[in-house]
């Protein structure tokens, strides 16, 4: 390792302009899931390419059938420097309900919270524009001080992460040689808490399904037909309500096939983190763990699978009342997977289960929305150890190696398609309200995030 | 009873001018729900008053905070003639989508369908201007032949039936003495089929409820919180799915209190109508009765209570996918009531049931949307028997006494507020497309409807 003090100082001096650049990116409304923002997604990709070029990257916008990728390359300081692929995504979640935002989600701002704490507000500050820019700004500090980067770096920024990444696998396949590195760095995760950085070594997988139940061929008057005609909302709610038993377990046949119990030493290290149900749930106004009984909330969110209804709609939903029996009812359902659960099998089992609940004169359609298996990395690999030490040098408390409830399908894709493990480091906090109104990112996350990458790149190069 | 032949002949001779008068009324665009047509509603009321005056009624437009009422009085042929209140409504439904109409909805016409069948086309022909004019024209025929009416008649025409009748109860209350009669005649229902007239003697009641379940104080990321945080859609779907057991019965405690089995002879008369599940459900693309097992579709829709979810919504319902755990989930639920079921008790039982399904850290709110008890008239009352015989004399097949799945709140209001039962007779057909484009009324419904009222008035006076 080298003396990184000058690079860290440069990162400190740069902070004002680093924020300016982040805010430029945040102002671009790159909502990938809504076709109305297609042009803005392209603009975000172009902005990133232009900026990376100023840092000496060989960068390009790479078109896909969906939103474009950004790919950039930079050589390392020496020929034997490790080659890392850095991944982030420039697309963001929709902003509805817009009326719950305190500020325009696309007009980012710095808000002083008192006691020296400042936050950056706006859609994408934490997920994931703020995070990916921590890495870019770390590279910039290196370049300005050393005219070189300690590692050979390939950057891949995606624009469809919030809409199921339909173009990602074909793109990785078509560009495998160009993108293959020694390992990937992924910055789309969080800290353990405000003072404790975290490396995520276990990620849940995800299966997304949309279900549409159709009964009559038109909306019916509930006076004329009520009691005799099938109500698709009843069919749907009955199927969905049957997904869990009274102990919180998921009832689908063979659902727990491939789910392994967490090793005792890992569970013990999680227990040391001292997170109670009240700690996790209290921050969002809840208190009672809702999942499988007899397991800690960390286990429930990091190491156990789930079935969640993410959206439901059918019939009359406006003001007042309409005594209608709807023709259709729909739901979006997702499963978080762990261990070796097979996404394709889970999808099929779910579909068969729902079909079994649909009366003979009704019908059901399914639409697949993404599938990825769970990811498990070795808790004691050299890369994790180096990153752990580098992070521990930067933050008040030592870094911890944790599980994660979310899904980062790219990690599985890197593993399967490019034979490459990922190091997952990020600086988000649990209260960042990603995917919700009033998303924010701590100024400390941004600033010390940049400094963290300076240290990690140095450690990886050693 | 008297010899009504001269009056019937006069009604036949009058048919041309009876149609002219109906068409004048149909041309007035009295859409009550759209404020743009406020003046036209007033015009319709004025037209009716002017016409009733020419028939010797003491008639007046009676203003309300909404659209006006028409009230008219005429003495009977003798002091001991029964006093009846005739009810109809002069307001009509909106005409959207206008592009689906074959003709201008407010330029009524007679259309020859071949084989001697003619129909009257236009908004309001069946619901309810055509129907109310059958009664008015019956009165006219009587007056022209006898210079008298066999019953003492009070007429009440409402202009807000299609927009929730907000002024009706206050008007009945304020004018109870003036409006109270021996019984009411309501002409807003249908025939059993083209040849078989019907008297509706049972109407289901209705309780409407909106339920809002709140879990976390914001939308959550299902990766971070899934498995630990309560999902309000799960809470709601579980509660709603639990409303019915596997036999289709409603599970709410004491729900069936006040529900009586339909007398065997009534059930037998319904079975004779020969309506199979396929007849009712086949027309809307269904085939399997969904309610309580072992009961005919007529029994299910006329004589059994229901619980229906009329609308449900929560979480992400747009394009694509969003792995959110919603903060709130909502549903609109209605109960059709029969017999002596108590709307207030049903509402409270439902609320208590839902509350019992809500976890300690979630909350639920309810919003009431109307309540009316079921209406049951004695199947063998003298008034029904007289009307049944009169109708049987006019139509090819004998009249049937039926139930109705829908609610006609006015009937309950007459019962509760004026202590007066209603006789429900109407000449609409199931294919009249009321509330839809291309509304029509059979010319036979109009002509024989007029003749039917001639016969009924005579029978009631006897």
Automatic annotation (TrEMBL), chains A, B:
Is Metal-binding found in the keyword set?
A: yes
Keyword Hydrolase set for record: yes
Q: Which InterPro entries match?
A: Cyt/Met_Dipeptidase, Peptidase_M20, Peptidase_M20_dimer
Where are the membrane-spanning stretches? none
* Species whose genome carries this gene: Rhizobium gallicum bv. gallicum R602sp
Q: Mind listing the UniProt keywords for this protein, alphabetically?
A: Hydrolase, Metal-binding, Protease
Name the record gives this protein: Peptidase M20 family protein
Q: Could you read off the lineage of the organism from its UniProt record?
A: Bacteria, Pseudomonadati, Pseudomonadota, Alphaproteobacteria, Hyphomicrobiales
| Sequence ranges assigned to domain Peptidase M20 dimerisation in this UniProt record | 203-361
One example of a Gene Ontology biological process annotation: proteolysis
Molecular function terms, GO-annotated? metal ion binding; peptidase activity
